[in-house]
Here is the input.
Amino acid sequence: MSSLSPTLGVGGAILALVLAMSLAAPWIAPYPTTEQHMLERLKPPGARFLLGTDQYGRDLLSRTLFGARPALGLGLGAVALGLALGVPIGLTAGYVGGRLDDLVMRVVDAMLAFPSLLLALLIITALGASTGHALLAIGVANGPGIARIVRSATLALREAEFVLAARARGERHLYVMFGEIFPNVLAPVIVEATLRIGFAILAGASLSFLGLGVQPPAADWGLMIREARQYVFLSPWPLLAPGTALAFTIVAFNLFGDGLRDRLGAT
Amino acid sequence: MPPPVLDVRALSVQFETNEGPLRVLRDVSLQVAPGETFGLAGESGSGKTTLGYTILQALAPTARVTGGAILFEGRDLLGVSEDELRRIRGRRIAMVYQDPRSALNPTTRIGAQIAEVLEIHERAPARAAGRRAQELLELVNIADPASVARRYPHELSGGMQQRAVIAMALAGGPSLLILDEPTTGLDVTTQARILELVADLKRRVGAAILYISHDLAVIAQVADRVGVLYAGELVEVGPTADLFAQPVHPYTRGLLDALPHLDGLRGLVPIEGRIPRLTDLPPGCVFAPRCDFVAPACTAATPALETVAPERRARCVRWPTVLATPRRSTAAAIAPETVASDAPLLAFEHVSKYFGGAGAVARWLGIGAPPVRAVDDVSFDVRADEVVALVGESGCGKTTLGRLAVRLLRPTAGRVRFAAPKPTDAQIVFQHPDSSLNPMKRIGPSLARPLVLRGLRRRERGRRVRELLEAVRLDPDYGARRPAALSGGEKQRVAIARALAMAPQFVVLDEPVSALDVSTQASIIRLLAELRRTLGASYLMISHDLSLVRHVAARVGVMYLGRLVEIGAVDEVFRAPSHPYTRALRSAVPRPDPAVPGRPIRLEGSVPSAQHPPAGCRFHTRCPQKIGRVCEEAEPPWARASPTHWIACHIPIAELSRSSEEARP
Here is the structure.
């Protein structure tokens, strides 16, 4: 118990680094993200530009550092929205049971049958492309999966004796759900949410890559990869810098989530 | 005496944990001779199951044998190779565990599973193995072995499953059979038949049997010799009759005095305190902190297992004094006076509760499963200031009835009338201490929550929580603890305190002590009785334990398959005239007295499904006193045996009084 597991340790270390990068970006980034150096386009890493420059001569290090902000913001925000939707739905369906549970779970199943990126695309097509809409779309797409996890955990506790005791003393259903059951489903929910942040960041980057998320000229990993695509044979650096950052961040969330699962004993 | 099959010598085992070594077994020695049944008794944490695993060399990787030897047929099992162990396990030594469902492979037919053992160990050809499997099923008293061999485990009742597991254990022709709580999950009438089987096996097979159980009454019925294990040490060992007649070690005495007796007069004297932590053992005798006879010599050094009489040894330096002191075997009366007020506080009026079943459309079409009739047309009442008990075996509907009483369930038909001002004046205490308390909440907030509902202010709540903890004999500093830091008995005290916090007039006690050790049981039962006196509340106690019910209830109702079959004052239900089912139930209760061997009435078959209950009297399919067609066709009428005693049976009361003469206290 007391020793730190390697998954939790490595995942946590990378996450701390990414978080520090995003917070300290204004102080450690050597250049403003949109400052163009027209004479030094598509430069390889060197003394002036540590990671090289892109096709407009913008510093890749600065843009990669700042790019952590929309990635984390979108990942955390979308999962928070997913929790805000999924937790009450799952708790209610699992606790009330019967017809309501059947109905809610069939709707959830239908939504789960949709690839979540497709669902997100649908929402964005309806609302228009922007960072806010991407967050909304990914958040909504995460709701059903979280609802299912919460519901199955709730179902297992519905007939627990401490829940029956609360009902016997006349507690209101809302209190039983949030005061008695919710604290006990927290562990699996935290694990699930951590794992989902990685996927949400990937989904956000995918939307930006498709031009449906963060809009130029902002610094965002997905968007940077999109723009670098055409020049990949001239210089791989505009693609490698954000790509590596994205990969490490997602792997870190997965490691951290797996480590938490072992630590909290959740399934 | 022939050389012992099993000779455990000064065995010590410890588990490595983060909090340091856990010395689970210390200096344990015992012998089991061929054809002998050795009963190993102990409460939870005594190390009795670890001993079974150690003999089979199937310990967890964190466990280590730190000393001693296990001689099996003269060879030390601790020294033999893995290959050799494989040949011994399952063949020369077989083990039967508590839960037969997890011992059987759910996807393989019973016959094939037993045959497999024969094919592996005896290298028997498939056909011969199949024949032998059926013989083994016959050996464990299965009436129709050919048909049972073709069935899957889930098609058998719990008792039949356990027989099949025992048959499988016998397949290799073992010279040592280890039975670890083989009847603990079973109903009392089923248990009686398994115990009968164990006694038979000793005669027929001639194997040495090590019978591990927490239940002294069961051990009294099956064992030739008994060892009592406490906190990892064998504290007393001796022939069953002598040990039960005159226990030498104070712990053995305490255990026997704590057991409730079916006569309702003896027992239920609690052992105060709790079993010591194995990481933090007291100096000297491990039982000293809970012992009434403790003297300075007790804490000076660990006492040796001394011979106190021929074939009897005890680990107590004060044994002469203990023997000279008379036992406190008479319990102070804890049953309430039978006189209660006439006004019913809670009345069940033709209450039925069905679960599941097909929807209206499917029913109209005549397809789909019928509902499970958990409770079917039950009427009785609990008066103010009264303790009523409901007894019956699993699936009889007693728990459902308890939940109907506190409105956790709504009746399908009939009504539950409760004559108190608020519906929350009825509260409930559940069976499982681990599930009763919210694991994420500290004790204080758990107890304060009912007070919030009652509108108490913050300061009053703090004071009241302390009072509640004191009322259930817990330290006020328990408020800051989490449930995980409490023992089973302590958790149950908190659960009781939480129910009391609502100041109820009526409390359902659903098997409140059945998950607890005997020594803890007694103190919880006494606490409940005392609280009732100060509170003036009524209890509806639900239990499978007839001996316990005899001690605490004023009236008792007996249930079978969703129906009430008999109800009366406690003394009336425990003597003739009785419903044939009540008689069978009573006769099946094992007595903690080897001098009174059980003569259980055999109930044939198993309890029918509550989805398709038998017509007429529900009990007619198993009734040893069935009188004919009338039992199969007509609902039995309620007959009055006394103003307070009613029996639902076709047999006239006069007849029932005659047929029950063997029913002794």
Q: What stands out?
A: Residues 60-96 of chain A form the longest helix (37 residues). Chain A has nine helices and no strands. The mean pLDDT of chain A is 91. The two ends of chain A are 17 Å apart (CA to CA).
